[in-house]
Every structure is written in C-alpha cells, then in structure tokens.
Amino acid sequence: MTPRIKIIRKVSDPPVVKGFNPYGLELGNQKLEPINLFYEEYEAIRLSDYDMLNHYQASVMMGVSRPTFTRIYASALQKIAKAFVEGRQISIEGGKVYFDSDWYHCKKCGCYFNNPEKENSVINCPLCGNQQIDKFDYENNKTDTINKACYDMCICPECGFEQEHQFGQPCSTQICQKCNSFMKRKGSKNCRNFKNQ
Amino acid sequence: MKVAITSTGDSLESTIDQRFGRCAYFVIYDIESKAIEFIPNPNKDAEEGAGPASVQLVASRNVSKIVSGEFGMKIKSLLDSLKIQMIVLKEPEKKIREIIEMLNHLNLNNSKA
Ligand SMILES: [Zn+2]
Ligand SMILES: [Zn+2]
C-alpha cells in the first residue's frame, strides 16, 4: 500500500504578519475570540485584490479549480467582514497549504538543495556537511550552471502553461505559446532578491 | 534516516542518474543501518506521469532526502508539499558509492557533535 499523495494548495510566500489587532475597542468587547484566516484565504485575497488577478487567473496561480478558488475567496471575505464588524483580531495561520521552499548552493560539493522545513534554518550542506552555503539568489545570478539549476518558472495566468524562467527576461514580456497571453512569474513574491549571509 | 539516490544501474559503481522521474534505478539508503536497496524504476519508460509515480514510490519508502540531477517543476511542488528534501547534484560522473560515502561521513560528523 502506497500512501496517496495529497496535492495541496500552493501559497508562494507566508504573509509578512501573523495577524491584525483592532484598536479603540469598546469596553466589554475585548475578550472576543480572534478570527482565524487560513493561509490559502490570505493568498486568495492577495492574488485577487492586491495582484488584481481575476478569479480564474488566481485559481491557476494557486493550483486549485476555479470553484474551489471562489469558495476559498468567499470564506476569506466573510471572515474579514466578521472581524471588521465585530472588532475581532485576525490571526493568519494554518490551512491546507505548502510554501515554495528556499534553495541553497553548497560551495564545496557544488550541489543545490532546498530547505523543506521553513521553520528551521539551514547551516550545513546535506551532502558534504560544509558550512559554506549560499542562499540561492534567483535574480542576481546570471551564470549558466545556476541558470540551469534554477527551477523558477513563468506561468500563463490564462491557461496555466508553464515554462522555465529565463534570467534577465521579465516574465511579463513573455508570451504564452499556447494562448498568446502575457506570462507571469510563478510565486512572484518568492523571487525577490536575497542578501547572502 | 533514509535517502533516495537516482542511479543509472544496480551497483555501487553505477553513476547518479541525472533524471528523476525516468531514472533507471532508485537506491534507497538507510544511513543508520547502512542497508542499501536497489529498486528498478517501473516508471522508466512511462509515456507520462513518470514524475508523480516516482515521487509516490520513494515517498512510500519514507525517505527524507532525494539526491538526483534534476527535479521538474511539478515534482518540486509535490516534494515541497511532502517535505522531502531535494539535493541537486549536476555531476553525471558521480558514483553511488561516492555519494553514500559522503552521506556516511556527514552522519559520522553529526553524531560526534
Ligand atoms: Zn556540499
Ligand atoms: Zn496561455
């Protein structure tokens, strides 16, 4: 018996805060339970109302069906409305999601590896144990080896077609081979520049 | 802890297979017990779906790391969601024996610390 692999929703990056606090609450209303906004609900709002994608495009970005996206989005709005009206805290956590992991490069053995546990930071190369590792800098590296090992992708928000991202060519100037729409970076927030430590 | 390595053959002198989904063999190596198992990849010649089927195969062996030459985008997402670590080694000449030695050496240093 092999375990079934569950495909879960994809969130490109965790939110920058853990939640929101209301202020100026009337006395007596301070002890209300916080509203728990799931990561995928946060992501639905981000894609739809911050990145201004339509629901179809946003569903492609999250790797869910259009009806599923609509359901997640509706639930997100309802929770936020409840928090607004009742003056409750919002905590952003949990949900059926995973995050793209960060990638690293080992200077000694030359391997590339990801960190599947976002909570724990990486100290050693998982192959040779060397401590000289670099966070994999997606945008500033232009060498061939890194280009090949970079799994960054452009995605078409209209049809979901994906192609490998080419360095120095903004995704938004790339045209989808299938439907001729403009492409978008998959999980674009993840591709910001990292400082090497 | 178990590690999967993609291999071009079924011996320790075989080299790392640069493909993940369509590699010839999976080597499942148990770092603690030092047990080595070579599994012929049933998805080697699959027309499609080789990647996810291979993920399922290695996931069923409870590996926590995979060493291979490449992971496609879909595979990367699947392994991310399963929290299995990917190690990309772009050295087609590297032998399975050498990779296992690296892992042993690493394990030795970790247990000393
Ligand atoms: Zn290394
Ligand atoms: Zn398209």
What topology does this entry show?
The complex is a heterodimer of chains A (197) and B (113).
Chain A: E1 9-11, E2 19-20, E3 35-37, H1 39-50, H2 55-62, H3 66-86, E4 90-92, E5 97-99, E6 102-106, E7 112-115, E8 133-135, H4 144-149, E9 153-155, E10 162-164, E11 184-185
Parallel strand pairs in A: 1-5, 3-4
Antiparallel strand pairs in A: 2-4, 6-7, 6-8, 9-10, 9-11
Helix pairs in contact in A: 1-2, 1-3, 2-3
Chain B: E1 2-7, E2 25-30, E3 36-40, H1 50-60, E4 63-68, H2 73-82, E5 85-88, H3 96-112
Bound molecules: zinc ion (2 copies).
Give an overview of the whole structure.
The complex is a heterodimer of chains A (197) and B (113). Chain A is of the alpha+beta class and 197 residues long. Chain A folds into three domains: 99 residues, Arc Repressor Mutant, subunit A, CATH 1.10.10; 45 residues, Rubrerythrin, domain 2, CATH 2.20.28; 51 residues, no CATH class. Chain A is built from four helices and eleven strands; from the N terminus they run βββαααβββββαβββ. In chain A, the strands form four sheets. Chain A has a three-stranded mixed beta sheet with strand order 2-4-3. The longest helix of chain A is centred in the middle third of the chain and has 21 residues. Chain A starts with 8 loop residues before the first strand and ends in a 12-residue tail after the last strand. The N terminus and C terminus of chain A are likely disordered. Chain B has a single domain, classed as Nucleotidyltransferase, domain 5, CATH 3.30.420.130. Chain B has three helices and five strands, in the order βββαβαβα. Chain B starts with a strand and ends with a helix. The model of chain B has no long low-confidence stretch (mean pLDDT 92). Chains A and B meet through β7 and α4 of A and α1, α2, β5 and α3 of B. β7 of chain A pairs antiparallel with β5 of chain B. The structure holds zinc ion (2 copies). One zinc ion binds next to loops of chain A.
